[in-house]
Amino acid sequence: MSQQFSYFSPGPAKIPDEVLSGLQEDLLQYKDTHISILELSHRSKEFTNILEDCEKVVRKLLKVPDNYRMLFMQGGATGQFAAVPLNLLSRTGKADYITTGTWSEKAAKEASKFGEVRQVKLDNTEPCKGEEFNPFNDTEASYVYYCSNETVHGVEMQAIPKVPDGVPIVCDMSSNFFTRPVDVAKFGMIYGGAQKNIGTPGTTLVIIREDLLGSPLPSCPAILDYTLLDKNKSVYNTPATFSTHVMKEVLEWVSRQGGVEEMERRCIQKSSLLYSIIDQSNSFYSTQVHPTKRSRVNVVFRVGTGGGNEAKEKKFVDEAMQQGLLSLKGHRSVGGIRASLYNAITLDDTRRLAHFMNTFLKENHSA
Ligand code: PMP
């Protein structure tokens, strides 16, 4: 029997096999165009249909209200760290950032180039209390920003911050986009890069309430200008055509699987399997993240009693790789192990990892 492989990468991440098979055909010839999907003009009828269908499936999956617009942008989520202030800061010149890890901190740093940024850093070892997630009571901020899932630290916010009426909330959902239902109406804007749950790098999906368009800072470059992109239906310049197509295909797959409600059910099931092993390992496996903030999509943990042991972690990653369990090394800034359980990771993939973790525990604990 040939060896099975499971790919737990934090991104670019696994794409469902069914989608990959369809893409193989599209690479040789897209529909009846006689050309590859890679060669398709962004002004063609076929690409216009791809964009429209992609928007349609996003609207359906997240039940996006009619007063929200959708933009397909380039520059990754990092591009949005600049685009958000450049488009949304003009009301007061101030913005509030709730930070929980690497990505929200990077976003706050970038925004501070364009205006006055206030930052509150949450303690991830503490529970996500309602009041804790309401750090800015009285704010002149043009918006309040947070990241719903910190990919490096494995921290997922289960609540939406409570902010004063009229202050829009902006959220980076790059790593848990479409892994759970979202009440879009609670947000001014949400966004995410494609390469984790919804495709391959290139396209960043922005969903923004229409009244927030129309007042970019004068210095906002055209390529990051939401108002300009909206007027031009995301084809102001050449967009990431292939990546947009992949996004549409992946989201249609999500829809066929039962939508974001089903993705959430699976994410809970998959992550619980690993967290229960961590919790029952007598501290051989450990995580500092408070149980109420544990990510369902990036399970981050240390291996070895006393909060982690680099030699044991290297052994864990190496032996896992020999078993066909790929890309489990934690982010270089935090070390340890990270198992990313995005939508394309099956329960079977997760069970294989769980089995490996149990065996590794037996063979190495107090050894
Ligand atoms: N935000 C989050 C939550 C991320 O996980 C990442 C990438 N890992 C980024 C932003 C940056 O994304 P990009 O590399 O597409 O700029």
From TrEMBL:
The keyword Acyltransferase does not apply. The keyword Transferase applies. It is an enzyme of class 2 (transferase). It catalyses: 4-(phosphooxy)-L-threonine + 2-oxoglutarate = (R)-3-hydroxy-2-oxo-4-phosphooxybutanoate + L-glutamate; O-phospho-L-serine + 2-oxoglutarate = 3-phosphooxypyruvate + L-glutamate. Its cofactor is pyridoxal 5'-phosphate. Keywords: Amino-acid biosynthesis, Aminotransferase, Pyridoxal phosphate, Serine biosynthesis, Transferase. InterPro entries: Aminotrans_V_dom, Aminotrans_V_PyrdxlP_BS, Pser_aminoTfrase, PyrdxlP-dep_Trfase, PyrdxlP-dep_Trfase_major, PyrdxlP-dep_Trfase_small. Its EC number is 2.6.1.52. GO terms for molecular function: O-phospho-L-serine:2-oxoglutarate aminotransferase activity; pyridoxal phosphate binding. One of its GO terms (cellular component) is cytoplasm. GO terms for biological process: L-serine biosynthetic process. It comes from the Eukaryota. Pathway: Amino-acid biosynthesis; L-serine biosynthesis; L-serine from 3-phospho-D-glycerate: step 2/3. Residues 8-353 form the Aminotransferase class V domain. HAMAP family: SerC_aminotrans_5. Belongs to the class-V pyridoxal-phosphate-dependent aminotransferase family. SerC subfamily. This is Phosphoserine aminotransferase.
